[in-house]
Amino acid sequence: MNERTYVTERPIAMSPPVTAEPTAAPPAAQAPRTGSRRRFFASPPRLFALCAVLGALLLLSVVVAIGLGAAVVAPEDTVRYLWAALSGGSIGADELTTYRIVWEIRTPRVLLAALVGAGLSAVGVAVQAMVRNALADPFVLGVSSGASVGAVLVTVTGGLAVLGIHAVSVGAFVGALAASVLVYAASAGRGGALSPLRLVLTGVALSFGFQAVMSVIVYFAPDGEATSTILHWTLGGFGAASWGALPLVTAVVVLGVVLLHRSSRALDLLALGDETATSLGIGPDRHRRLLLVLVSLVTGVMVAVSGAIAFVGLILPHLARMVVGATHSRVLVVAPLAGAVFMVWVDLVARTLAAPRELPLGVITALVGVPVFIGLMRRKSYVFGGR
Amino acid sequence: MDLQLDGLTVVTDGRSLVSELSLDVPSGGVVGLVGPNGSGKSTALRCVYRTLRPSAGAVRIDGDDLSGLSLRRSAQLVAAMTQDGAVDLDFTVEEVVALGRAPHLRGNAALGPRERELCEAAMDRLGIRHLAARGVLSLSGGERQRVLLARALTQEPRILVLDEPTNHLDVRHQVELLSFLRGADLTVLVVLHDLNLAAAACDRIGVLSEGRLVASGAPEDVLTAGLVRDVFGVSAEVVTHPGSGDPQLLYSLTPTGG
């Protein structure tokens, strides 16, 4: 083969150092190619170490975020309150107010942020692979605008009143699922074939449709409530977090991430193209259908509790791939952890930056996301979507 | 294992892309499919790697109908080098090659030591070991084709089908790829555009025109001036390669019928 041209690409075999040099650089550091870093985390122990670091960071972030806010609680007190709550221990009567802020308001909120961050990142990874588009995110399939229509309809008409405070969330969830079903029905071809491009285009087209419906509702709505509902659902926020919704969200997100991770190799193959996937033993349409159901359910639940938080599901998958490469069995471990950490901090900024007012999450993620996104595209070493 | 196209017919939207195509690829043989654009070569091949389901007829392996096998089972027997276009994710070369083991592994099961050796052996055979850590998106066309071929070898197939594998390759890589196929000890069905390369590389050639097999046999029997004029609409002189004895075509740049 073409030796001359490639010889420079080869890692040069280093002869052992002549002088005793106990702190010789590890082999990976000697090859400055981008592939080397990704290869670095290909070894399970190193990947595990990375995940342990991210896990520790997440734990730390959660404790710090619970402590910060209008009333600042020191981390050691936070841990003490959390421990008291979990173990049924006792705290001083004078601390009751702080305890209640920590345990009843902030803890569920921060946990929800971590969960949604993890979920959006994992779903983003899966959607990008299944529609073979680096610009896809969890909402490209029309889920978020469908959820908004659902939420707004419930707000305006007062439907689902029997469900009480959950009515709007249920409306959003139903809207999200309805949007997914519509996207599927409109893009499915002969024999249930689901072409990636058709999925994306249908999702985008239907999103415009839903937005139009939403505008009409808002335009004719008698009060401003519909408008603020829309704002909430399009920009996202964890203000409504409570312990009540947490078990369901936890179950759905954890199950979703686990199932997606179990389909890692299928996602690898789908990302290589339908013909390749088939020739390697995976039915692309069947897998895409299953993934669509899974992704819609997880996204629907997340949108119902937090609105459509943009950029997380788009950026975090790319950041994770930059570190560990494209292989999904690695990306789908790292992206959710990183997403959880990211979201906890975004939420913290959202509720403290302009306190006592809360900034919509979408504003913060956009402020962080847009520069990161552009930076990503301009980086030479990271090939962004093959272009 | 021998591969048999048995009365293969593919009809889409009322148009028949391939009609009653019957062709045998004997075990260990290299058979080429040639024909003008749109003559159904790739369509026929897609039935072999199961992206398409034949409307009638069957693809048989040692006499067994392929459609009776699971996708996974047939992927253990048949590897394909397809024309799948742009990949968006930047897998490394070794990751892509390792995916050739997918039909043999359950779920996310990691590669065992023997499988890793297989990957490395395949990369060595194709001379791409030094590219192992490179992202596939940064490769040249020739390198990419070799990566795909290495992946196909890692699959440990009995049968290899290739859809225009010499596309975008320079002469040297074309020759290298086809001589590799000749020595690969696999049952090979390959779609080729270049009739001269087909004549040099294949034991037998099938010529497709508008979805029908119009000729098949040894290259010297099939590639005649008359057939090339009728099927491709090109006037050509057939000469014998002084070294190999294969028929080779010399085209003249005037349209036929003149």
UniProtKB/TrEMBL annotation, chain B:
InterPro entries: AAA+_ATPase (IPR003593), ABC_transporter-like_ATP-bd (IPR003439), ABC_transporter-like_CS (IPR017871), P-loop_NTPase (IPR027417). GO terms for molecular function: ATP binding; ATP hydrolysis activity. SMART domains: AAA (SM00382). This is ABC transporter ATP-binding protein. Keywords: ATP-binding, Nucleotide-binding, Transport. CDD domains: ABC_Iron-Siderophores_B12_Hemin (cd03214). Residues 3-235 form the ABC transporter domain.
